[in-house]
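Hello K.,

You asked for the raw outputs rather than the summary table, so here they are, unedited. I folded two proteins back to back in the same session to keep the settings identical. This is the first:
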Amino acid sequence: MKRALITGANKSIGLEATRQLLHKGYYVYLGSRDQARGLEAVKKLKAEGLNHVEMVQIDVSNEESVQAARAAIGKSTEVLDVLINNAGINGGMPQTTLDTSVEVFKNVYDINVYGVVRVTQAFIDLLKKSSAPRIVNVSSSQGSLTLANDESNKYYHFKGAVYQSSKAALNMYSIVLAYELRETSIKVNMVDPGFTKTDFNNHRGTGTVEEAAQRITKYALIDDQGPTGKFFSEEFYPETGECPW
């Protein structure tokens, strides 16, 4: 049975992605910063008959927590097939370039960027033991420099100096990660789940969590001929999926 770790999986898109991988026959480690909420999410999934799931407490902004999660998962498996770096925050709005404090930047980057670095570095050894390892970093079309500077973009006026720059930084990290792993079987892709109706945006989104999670799990399930080092936004580019940087 293949195994996956999803961070920030106790609710919304992360929880639905967990559900979808469970339906695909995966054993899923449901990563949750809050232990009680994580256990409640697992209880809900098991009530649906999805039993191959367990909660792993992990705060991606805390190195000790990440290492503790690595140790816990390492006790039950020597191989990890999928890592979905889903945990993220927006940092609150508005986020102007001149009035937003550096502390806000630090807090958002600590989860959206450094958190991905911490988790990826901690679990890369388990991923390398898989026959077909996949890393999916949950990004956003808001991290596209091209779209951010395109006045015809429907979200052109939705600017956030902190959140947008954190996703752009995540994209660059992911590009370099894919490059460094180019001669391995590990495939790394960035996926924009779309403007989804969740508490992340006070339910102002237009898409469903089911559709958003499908966009993410799609790239966790790609075969050996699938892409790597790519940025996908099916909301903007439904035909090819590939999003400009």
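The second followed immediately with the same parameters:
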Amino acid sequence: MPVRDALATLPRALTSLRVQTHPNWELVAVDDGSTDGSAEWLVRAARDDSRVRVLRRGPEGIVAALNAGIEFASGEFIARFDADDECLPNRLASQWRFLEGHPEVGAAGTLVEFGGNEGAQAGYAAYVAWLNSVVEPEVIAWSRFIESPFAHPSLMVRTSVFREHGVYREGPFPEDYELWLRWLERGVCLAKVPEVLLRWHDLPMRLSRRDPRYSPDAFFQMKAPYLARWLRRHVAPERRCVLWGAGRKTRRRAEWLEAEGITISAYVDIDPNKQGSRRDGRVVMSPEAVVPLREAVFLIGYVGNRGARDLQRAFLVGNGWREGTDFLFAA
């Protein structure tokens, strides 16, 4: 658990650990240069509970704090947790049982409860709803280029996966998402326990809200090389890549893919005013026009409007296209 000035929420977080039905846990709390008394509070908590261990460090950032915690931890499994969230009582027991029963799975997340105001934070609430719909390993693998498929503090990882496939990397990108993409690329099986086991709070000062590493452009640029390598590995070279979506944002993402060596041959769009025209030298096709080209093209769905992805999937599957084989969604 990395900690930076979290005194207001630390008591709640630690209480949620102390009521776990699985009592055999160790909390490695890595204080990353707090100035609000968090470190001192943790030291007192460690005196009262030998399961709490505290690492005090200068302010080096979340990646350094996470990797220090991994190195310091002594367990067979490492569960991520944040100081502003809450574990539900069965969290550790359920994830431990799941990983013990599924030796092929390298890491398992959970479903999460949105700990915020759904009206005021509708976008985040929609993301949580999507997260909770992406559960099975195959669906996680297919969906990984849409959004980060895990709530970071919900994950439990076999320590051996960190040793064999690497820890967090520092860079101008979201450190957790990059790690999932890297592990999936290396063949690590990622799954979820189909239970709500974490209350995921969305506070105004959350790092993902204020750090440029978590901006939309940072996500898209970081994904592009991973998506490009996936396409080269899984799509026959004679199949042409087509993007669903001819708007400005989609065309910008096409530029990042092309910079990675992927040639985009055409766009697909439902707007009849765009169909038949050319955007950036590429023809814009109707969805109906692309259907008979299934064996000749591979389609990447880049439309991000809420509900549009479900409509695209229904249209393509209804016409005999297979997700992961003939088309893939990204964002």
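DSSP finds 13 helices and 14 strands in the chain.

Happy to rerun anything if the numbers look odd on your end.

Regards,
P.
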